[in-house]
Amino acid sequence: MxxxxxxxxxxxxGNGMAGMRTVEELLKFDPEQYSITVFGAEPHxxxxxxxxxxxLAGEKTIGDIMLNDRAWYTDRxxxxxxxxxxxxxxxxxxxxTSKKGVDVPYDRLLIATGSKPFVIPVPGHQLPGVxxxxxxxxxxxxxxxxxxxxxxxxxxGGLLGLECANGLAxxxxxxxxxxxxxxxxxxxxxxxxxxxxxxxxxARGLKFLMQAGTTEILGKDRVTGIRFKDGRExxxxxxxxxxxxxxxxxxxxxxxxxCERAIxxxxxxQTLSDPRIYAVGECVEHRKAVYGLVAPLWEQARVxxxxxxxxxxxxxxxxxxxxxxxxxxxxxxxxxxxxxxxETEDLVLRDPRRGVYKRIVVKGNTIxxxxxxxxxxxxxxxxxxxxxxxxxxxxxxxLLFGQRYCEAAIAPLAA
Amino acid sequence: MADGNLxxxxxxxxxxxxxxxxTGCGVEATPSGKLVRVAGDPQHPTNxxxxxxxxxxLGDTVVPQGxxxxxxxxxxxxxxxxxxxxxxxxxxxxxxxxxxRIIDTHGPESVAWYVSGQLLTEDYYVANKLVxxxxxxANIDTNSRLCMSSAVAGHKRAFGExxxxxxxxxxxxxxxxxxxxxxxAWCHPILFQxxxxxxxxxxxxxxxxxxxxxxxxxxxxDLHLGxxxxxxxxxxxxxxxxLHRLGLTDAAFVERSTLGLDETxxxxxxxxxxxxxxxxxxxxxxxxxxxxxxxxxxxxVITCFSMGVNQSSAGTDKVNSIINCHLLxxxxxxxxxxxxxxxxxxxxxxGREVGGLANMLASHMDLEREEHRELVQRFxxxxxxxxxxxxxxxxxxxxxxxxxxxxxxxxxxxPVVSLPDADQVRRALDQCELVIVSDVMAETDTTAYAHLLLxxxxxxxxxxxxxxxxxxxxxxxxxxxxxxxxxxxxxxxSEVARRWGHAAQFPYRAVHEIFDEHARLSAFENEGARxxxxxxxxxxxxxxxxxxxxxxxPVPRTAADARHLQAFADGRxxxxxxxxxFVPTPARAPANAVDADYPLVLNTGRVRDxxxxxxxxGLSATLSSHIPExxxxxxxxxxxxxxxxxxxxxxxxxxWGSLVGRAVVADxxxxxxxxxxxxxxxxxxxxxxxxxxxxxxxDPVSGEPEFKHTxxxxxxxxPAWHGFILSRKPLAIRHLAWWTRVTGxxxxxxxxxxxxxxxxxxxxxxVLLGASADADWxxxxxxxxxxxRAAHVVDGRIEAVLFVAPRPDLPSRxxxxxxxxxxxxxxxxxxxxxxxxxxxxGPDEGATICSCFGVGQKRIVAAIESGQADSVVKLGELLxxxxxxxxxxxxxxxxxxxxxxxxxxxxxxx
Lengths: 415, 910
Fold this sequence. Notes:
Family (chain A): Belongs to the FAD-dependent oxidoreductase family.
GO molecular function (chain A): oxidoreductase activity
Oligomer: heterodimer
Number of strands of chain B: 34
CATH topology of the largest domain in chain A: FAD/NAD(P)-binding domain
Keywords (chain A): FAD, Flavoprotein
CATH class of the largest domain in chain B: Alpha Beta
Number of strands of chain A: 27
Protein name (chain A): Nirb nh2 domain (NADH binding fad binding)
Strand order of the largest sheet of chain B: 5-4-16-15-14-6-7
Cofactor (chain A): FAD
Strand content of chain A: 25-35%
CATH architecture of the largest domain in chain B: 3-Layer(aba) Sandwich
């Protein structure tokens, strides 16, 4: 087919998972509509960032987690500027400028700058041996340290911190996880599940310091230890900051896009300030929500791509998210409001000897949250029931026993 | 618990007699290690090798669980103290000494014996001899008072002697069997099977059942008259008048052999129309006419009657109203005809033969007749002889409560459960000066009140004879050594007699010596005056006695002719004048009528697979599976009025007491009535002793209580939660609003209900199941839904499960129960523990219908629905159900017709 339309120019800032998924979706809708230029801060093609943990743990290699190599961009006529982040957006002239001074005009701009690790600004945080856990570079730094040093402290007992700690331990390091709260993964797990998790990780040799606020990282040329509010000190050769992430919105802010916690977008992933500029991924705030997980990102990418393609038939209503911990041998699943309130009801199943704990939070007759530990195979099904607000009343007594039980129970009623 | 064991080298089967109902089936028992295999005795004339469910499961009951093994004494000065073990010598010294002291202080009427149709004839004989001849009181009564004393009284009034004139073989040659107040299918299964086989062989034979309830027996009947409770006499009076009007009077027989017809007809309201009678009996007039016509047209008719007749304030009149009809038509003393009392207990008849009731003497002789007293005293060479009728069961326990009787020896029976107004029995025993209980089991509702407990021998240990409903004497033989220090009842009694200085009159060293004395007494100066005569069996030595084959009495010393062996065949009866009596029986209503406060009639009775107070059948998982829980059966209309759903709990109350049972709401159950089984008691349920509800009203002649008619009300019992436990070990379940215990195969099941609304379940659950804090404990909690489930696992195997819910619709217990026999739980079964079902929905059998082969309702329904089975025979070929004892056949038939009707309705609708 001979397309006579003049090609529009799409510039994508951020060569990460959200931006590239949007491009992939867009190419599926219409491969010819745009000429595309991609800027990325990292000097690679696009890789699956959430699989960095298995890379750190030695279960996968960098090659395993590459999503789009350079050939992929070339084959599709996409101009890739890897290792050259955009430093300026001129919305009036519709031109972006990179760190290396490349100017590229755009008709549409997609911001997918993701997030950056939150580095606690304590004294010593810039010492050699203090790293974050965000990209391939961080992983390589940690792997290098593990070959030459013995002790590591991971600050942060959340998803990322625990995966990191597990990876370091798998590389032979003595790892202490420092967490400011009294239970691990408090954003995803209730206390019983967190206790099971902590016990399982302790059994693998991890040490935990709970309710420990870091006040200083010690060392002259390189990190040698870490000090806490209560005066305790722990010697270490490596400190990993895994205390959370912050949306990477400096660039967006600097060009005057409306930001709250992140770049504010509507249900089409368009920024509120500029209809030519879209944003997806961890750098956006949609209906007050900022996501740090992968599933919402896929959903956003599909909607955004449809709009960029001029189809306009999809809207993004927000995501119901679930969490899994990528530590081999530890199964946990968390979704929705797993804490509950006065109007919710809990269904709980415990089999401590087998390390199984399940809790479903029900409101009215729908699931609003779930925590599964030890046996997570029904997690996706609960998530579906939750997303679709399925009336679970008929299967409530069997809900916790899983999909196969419930479907066996419902079948005769239907017959 | 027991420390005894039952090891005895297995060898050839030992022939003995079943210890349950009055049918008296022969059993072959083969001890094998700690187990006992039982089978029907093919040579026994009663059953020719067949056994019912209970009989088939006898092996389950010859176990050490719960047995009383040693004499024990409770210190009366310190109530609440545990029983102390003591030697037999000390125990017998205590019994003899205390009884003697009380007799010496307050006279012979101050002591009493309450004995049982579970005793063997020889035990019974010695008890009666000791009490009536050597204590000199007739205060010895028996639980047969609750069972067939009305039949005894009716026989004596009509015949002059307690004679059952029908034999089982008559059932094979009659053309009509009328079952009155008898669920024969469940209570005398082998006899019922025999009737069915007879009907099959001769299709002209009919079976009519008169019963207010629809039962397994009515299912198989050609005609069922669901008469109003207590209207039997009206119905038989009407029949008498009807037969007379039709000219069916056997004038020659009546003239030659009877007295009293005119007065009897006059009392029978002879002019009442069939419509009036039908209305009074709550029947359709057509049904009544059909029955009367059938009875009138059939020469060979046997009227079998049982507890529905006997257990009534007009029980004796009911018996006589039946006998009157047979006398009028001369249908008595002939093959295939006569009135036939089906006795409840294995040795009710033996007890009657030795005079075990308070108003009898011995060998069918009368306490009131001086020549009989003189004869018996001379034969016994006893220092005394009771000269006035003793207290009958209900009055006896009233006299204990009033303090008139100060000591009681209870043998082989459980009056705290079985008597009417049973809480009165508790009160009586609670303040009685001396309560001696000899029993097989350590913990019963009655042993709880004992001061002195004496371990008796159980079935399989004891040795002697029993007599069944048709006067057939059979041997019960020992085939295992007695557990612990259990001794024969006759030995205990004789030892007390020896301590009182009567060693010469109680010289027995072995049981055959007692039988010999009993046989000699029956012939002593008899000369044909008493039909009961087994003089021909006197003089048997130990070997001959042991080899004694079943035989029907009379067995006179000189060979009797055939006419003599067919009772009354010669037209001779046993009043002094040799004539039978018509007894006028004006109809009267049950003693207590229903009213606005207690508008329903409470009826009581047996279930198929349990016996009496469950001391034995309660040990068997097989027998406990048919009907696991105490229940209240009622009509849907009555249930709805009370807000009771099928499967929920219901409280039944009368002016005497109340209980709680599982509601069985049944379309076929007559409106205005309730049925509650007699079996459950404090050992098996918190609140299910129906005896406590029964009005303590007795028949004025027989003294038999009115168990079948107590005004009652029913209401929903709504606890805060329902639950169940299955546990490998027995648990101490107390302080709950309601519970019942069911024996399972390698587990015990508890059904529970509680009234506490907010229990700390995870903690309370562990307490209930006896699990420690570090136990392998799985739990499921739906707090808002009121659900709690927990499983205790030990070494990878199920130890116990607990399920709690706000409503009674809990998961099926069957699959969970099956896990107790399985080994290590795999992960899926572990999850299933709390789901209460396997993931791959296995075959949930539903309620067990055929206990012999463990065939459940769902499997049966499936076989019918699939078209594989369209008859009971086909079901049997396919699933084996109903092919052993056959007692589930009525239920199979019912399921078959219901399922087929359902399928038909469905196909018509579609």
